Amino acid sequence: MAGPAFRAAPVRVRVPATSANLGPGFDTFGLALGLYDDVVVRVAESGLHVDIAGEGAENLPRDESHLLVRAMRSAFEALGGQPRGLEVVCANRIPHGRGLGSSAAAICAGIIAARAVTIGGAERSGALDAPERAALLELATELEGHPDNVAACLLGGFTLAWTDDGTGGAGTAPGDAPAAVRAIRLEPAGGVVPVVFVPGNPLSTAEARGLLPRTVPHADAALTAARAALFVEALTRRPELLLTATEDRLHQDYRAPAMPESTALVARLRADGVPAVISGAGPTVLAFAEDGAAEKVARSAGEGWAANRLALDREGASVLPLA
To answer: Where does residue 101 fall: left (phi above 0), alpha (psi -120 to 50 degrees), or beta otherwise?
Structure first.
């Protein structure tokens, strides 16, 4: 059976940075931010050529081990076959190892690019029907390990992601089919402005996860569940509730020893009435500001932080014109 055919023309894919957890929504909430990586991919006659500019240019691999290339290979395999060769040009703006979804961006860019250069594949993530979108999310989650960042990167806006094993909570038995990954997209309220404070040094997600305990007190779990429910209302309709809604007792305090400066900044911002959280696994700090106060909030961190007011991304991963 013949494999897929590929387009001769290059394609350009843009993917947003993302912030996960957002305080109480551990491994569930994701938010797409207006900071982007771009990748241009062309099917070549043979071989693999990877060019990288911007974030990670000095240390990222330029071979088959590159995460974006691995994501493309997985997507091509799902589409029926590999191209003869690939030329990949990456323009990276999302900081690496800072809790802003750089790995999710690479994975989503690779999957979307592979579909875009395959004849019959989707040329834009928004053009996918529900089954195709679900398949993209499943593949991206398989590569990333959890769905929160990849859901926001693919869909844009504010996302809630979870897994569904079809048992109604009864759990799975050995040999059962893997749990399906689900996500829904919600629209953040107008006037909410994300401000990110990026420190100079990275922190690995594995290190941050290694600090989490196997169990937490029931009272802490109950409080965090209540705050997560409130957060959905706060971010989408009532931003004045965000300070209360971003309270968390599941993960941020346990990770504090790995990022004391970030933890101190979160505490200082919250003491000033600014809803602030650790972005993803850290060490970036994410604050939610009102439109008129965002610049003042951005100036509040002091030296040692790259503070940026960002837009909310509402489109997610997409294919753009080359020009």
So the answer is: left
